[in-house]
Amino acid sequence: MFKYQEDLRIQIYENVHEEIKLAKNNFDERIYHQDGYELYKGVHKGRPIIVKEYRGLSDEEHVAINEIMYASGMSVHRNALKFLGCCLEVNCPFLVFETAQNKTVANRICDRDYAQFQPMPWKERLKIAVEIAHAVVYLHTAFQRPIVHRHIKPSNVLFDERDKAKLCDFSLCVSIPEGESHVEEILAGTLGFVAPESIKTGFFSEKTDVYSLGTFLLVLLTAQKQFNLSRAQNGGEDLLGPYVKSQIENNRFEEIVDPCIVAEGTWLGKEQQLKAVISLAILCVNDSEEERPTMIEVAKNSEMFIELRMGLVSL
């Protein structure tokens, strides 16, 4: 029988294939997919759930166990998708999580080609930035050894039924060995979100996640993809970080802000706040990891930007 992690401690419960297949409606309601896995919505004994099924990976069981280990530890954080159970008895491993909406941050910010698209207000985007920054701070500081997520991006942030942001996909997480500042690992992640030093050396640190979150901030602000060949074809940069830097250097601030944010009108300190967020994001995507802020500093600054939006502080 399938059991839930009622006390949220690191415990692994296994499930038979047919029970999970029934719980996810025989694979009918797929809500998201990317290379290596798919997410389905389902119901188990009246409880809405999400089932993650690994597909097409040569080391599926290893990846699944890695995610179980780290997702279990993160289940206590309010901005992490809660892990509930798993099934490792089949060729394609299943993991079970709390339910979430069908859309990711990427869908709600960048996917504008469908009639039902509704722009996300800037204050909601800023709230998401704070929530995800705090989730990553927890990864970096709450465990015996710092954990690097390595896969922070808009499509790995879901929303619960109350629109709270939920960081997910802990399959690429790695722990930094005691006494070390970096860990060497096989290169993985998404182009545009992976720090340049990791691409060159294969070493990862907390500052790797800072780089990813910086690009995440730029996506929230610009609504542009992190990688776009058409930008390069038009004489610009294909990666979002370098593109925004070049636009700022050429005094084109207004051209990079999402038009939906511009259309919200004005408020006290709007331009000051937007420029402050861009400045923080550019610090995060600095080519030199030593020059990047810590994730704790990113979270504190993001909170300060919310207070600035409310007129409680000035920069």
From TrEMBL:
It holds the Pfam family Pkinase. GO terms for biological process: cell surface receptor signaling pathway. Keywords: ATP-binding, Nucleotide-binding. Residues 16-306 form the Protein kinase domain. GO terms for cellular component: plasma membrane. Gene3D superfamilies: Phosphorylase Kinase, domain 1, Transferase(Phosphotransferase) domain 1. GO terms for molecular function: ATP binding; protein serine/threonine kinase activity. This is Protein kinase domain-containing protein. It comes from Erythroxylum novogranatense.
